[in-house]
Amino acid sequence: MGKDNQMLKICHNCSLVLPDSEDELIVCSYCGQKHTIYPSGIIVSTFANLLHHDPNLSVRVFLVLKRNVFSVNEFFKLNKNDFFKLKNCGIKTTNELIKFQKALHKKLFTDSSIPNIPDVLKYDNDFYEVIIEKVSHKMKYILLHNYQIDSACKIIDLAYNDCFKLKDIYYARDEIERIRDIITQISNVINSTSELNGLSFKEIIKKNDKIRDLMGIGMFVDPDNLIYSLNIWILGIAKNSSRNKDIFMKRFGMSGCPKMSYRKIAVEYNVSIGRIRQITERMKFWGIKRFNSIRLDPIIEKAADILEINEKQLEIGDLIKELLCCNQEGEQLKSATPFLEYLNTFPVWQKMGLSIKGEIVYLDESSPKSIKKDAENLNNL
């Protein structure tokens, strides 16, 4: 495998990062598990582990191999007559074994079976935060806590080394194969589009509609066309329900009047208070997912810019006037304090050094914006 395709290698036994090695054999420095890297780039720890993650094996072939074969090399040395001698192995099973043997040899020894993954997918944290949200909540918990899959490199390693030890999750294969397909398609688009070279992941998805569609990311909110783009965003987290969008906007003071109580909204729509609460909480949950929240980054970045030129603090009302009500249409958002408080729960809001305390919005001295401005001032001295 070429240098450009090399990825972080993870131990199939303890999930820790394997030491760098130019050899085909790598031994985990923590648990001692041996791994073999094949020309295709696939890493194999044990033959049994490889069997567990082949979706095409019949139960009979799986059991025959598990009971009688204990290494990849041993399997490749067997011929048709050897298979016939194995217990419970007839003509049909033997033919399936020969077919599997040929397919496995091609899979392990065909060079460059792993596509050229661009560095932006390996090392950009925005990509990791979006792609990890593409798996189920249970799967995400297991990947993070049981296998320490906490970076894009590890996600990619997991996706392309399908012999990774995930035997305790019966539905894992389908989710990982779906992630692998997404990464492969995005890689192909980036590698074939020269204007995307050298850009961050966020810049790429702003420029390229195809990658946005592959990632399930909608249009970014535009501070210069705020009402329209914000309505599109809210409709997205409402799963295209106009009623739920209106409920969210009334609850968060975004309909031209102050925040409405659950009771008033419930009376207006002739549903229970509990149902209104359920709708708003569900939309808040979807809104904070990174593939949705990333679309609000332009607003959050603009908020940081406004605070940077206002001595790093403003009253919430003043920030709303400058951030959300900068034109006549924006008057609809004059009471959107609850929406700003919702943004305050977003990890990216906190990463930008923003915080709300009482009626004041602050920009931390160690925020990225402040550090960048201080560096510019030093360069100008």
How would you describe what is shown here?
- The protein folds into four domains: 3-109, no CATH class; 119-214, no CATH class; 223-289, Arc Repressor Mutant, subunit A; 295-380.
- Helix content is 54%, strand content 5%.
- It has helices at residues 47-52, 59-68, 72-77, 80-84, 91-109, 119-123, 125-131, 137-145, 152-160, 172-191, 201-207, 209-215, 226-237, 242-251, 262-269, 273-288, 290-293, 297-308, 316-323, 337-343, 347-351, 368-380, and strands at residues 25-27, 34-37, 43-44, 313-315, 354-357, 360-363.
- The strands form two sheets. The chain has a three-stranded antiparallel sheet. The chain has a three-stranded antiparallel sheet with strand order 4-6-5.
- β2 and β3 (43-44) form a beta hairpin.
- α13 crosses α14 and α14 packs across α16.
- The radius of gyration is 27 Å and the shape is elongated.
Quantity of strands, as a count: 6
- Cα-based radius of gyration, to the nearest Å: 27 Å
Strand order of the largest sheet: 1-2-3
Question: Sheet with the most strands?
Answer: 3 strands, antiparallel
User: How confident is the prediction overall: mean pLDDT?
Assistant: 84
Number of domains: 4
Distance between the termini: 49 Å
Number of helices: 22
Shape: elongated
- What's the helix-strand series? EEEHHHHHHHHHHHHHHHHHHEHHHEEH
Structural class: mainly alpha
Task: Describe, in short, the structure shown.
By secondary structure, the chain is mainly alpha-helical. The chain has helices spanning about 45-50, 60-70, 70-75, 80-85, 90-110, 120-125, 125-130, 135-145, 150-160, 170-190, 200-205, 210-215, 225-235, 240-250, 260-270, 275-290, 290-295, 295-310, 315-325, 335-345, 345-350, 370-380, and strands at about 25, 35, 45, 315, 355, 360-365.
